[in-house]
Design goal:
Radius of gyration: 18 Å
Largest sheet: 7 strands, mixed
Number of strands: 7
Structural class: alpha/beta
Oligomer: single chain
Length: about 260
């Protein structure tokens, strides 16, 4: 890649970051009913819910009450509430000020257990080896992959764990769908460039002492089409069987990763 193109992408990344900040600020301000917001996997479409259910199960299994937990890109708290149910100290971070204000105003949030920080996931304002657990749900594409990986590693205590659920960028069908969202103004080009890939997962595997990943939604594109003429419960079961039977990870729509330092 020539120097001009590198500079162009860098400038675009900076402007896209501002674009995403404004988009999420507006989203938080315009949610009509804060008290009836759905949380966790219940907020996801049933056909696409399985990876989020697994992500939640890891949170409940790995997080103990005395652990210090950092959530990257908390947004409006879709998964923050679940973290607070399992830990006595959760640090919620996001680039969007309004999103974090939204979390603070949510019903049944224990503010004594929650601290919020407006910050960039590429450079987090915490000391080395601060956290027992770091989590993220759909956040890795909002920062430079290498910088974010370095920050996660830096901030984890020895034996600390990173747990995330995110999208995979290797399937050309899903990649094309995301490009359409860029054209419609629902996503920035930088998030497409930095969407997690099998190459990024390999970097996590090389960096961390323990590594486990599961892939989901290898036929999600078919599931969404099939929902017009097949029962939802049957489609969910079929998708799950396909994911478990075939190790075609490059086809996956989502993945859930857990690594140990």
């Amino acid at each position: 890649m020539n120097l001009f193109l590198q500079r162009l992408i860098r400038k675009k990344t900076i402007s896209d970051k501002e674009l995403e900040k404004k988009r999420y600020d507006n989203f938080a301000l315009n949610i009509s009913n804060k008290q009836n917001q759905k949380f966790g996997s219940l907020a996801e479409e049933p056909i696409l819910r399985e990876p989020y259910i697994y992500y939640e199960s890891l949170i409940k299994k790995e997080i103990k009450s005395q652990m210090k937990v950092l959530e990257l890109g908390s947004g409006t708290g879709r998964y923050t509430k679940i973290l607070l149910e399992n830990s006595n100290l959760v640090y919620a971070t996001d680039i969007s000020i309004q999103s974090l204000k939204f979390i603070k105003e949510m019903k049944n949030i224990n503010n004594q257990k929650l601290q919020t920080f407006v910050c960039d996931i590429e450079k987090l304002p915490f000391d080395d080896k601060t956290f027992d657990i770091i989590t993220s749900a759909g956040v890795l594409s909002y920062g430079n992959n290498n910088l974010v990986l370095n920050e996660i590693y830096r901030l984890l205590k020895p034996n600390g764990k990173f747990i995330c659920v995110d999208s995979l960028n290797n399937n050309p069908i899903y990649f094309f769908n995301r490009l359409i969202h860029v054209l419609r103004g629902n996503r920035s080009i930088s998030t497409i460039i930095r969407m997690p890939s099998l190459k990024l997962l390999k970097k996590f595997k090389m960096r961390f002492r323990k590594y486990k990943v599961r892939f989901f939604g290898k036929i999600s594109w078919f599931s969404l089409i099939a929902s017009y003429f097949l029962e939802e419960s049957f489609i969910i079961k079929l998708s799950s069987i396909f994911d478990n039977k075939f190790n075609l990870k490059f086809l996956a729509f989502k993945f859930v990763l857990i690594v140990t330092k």
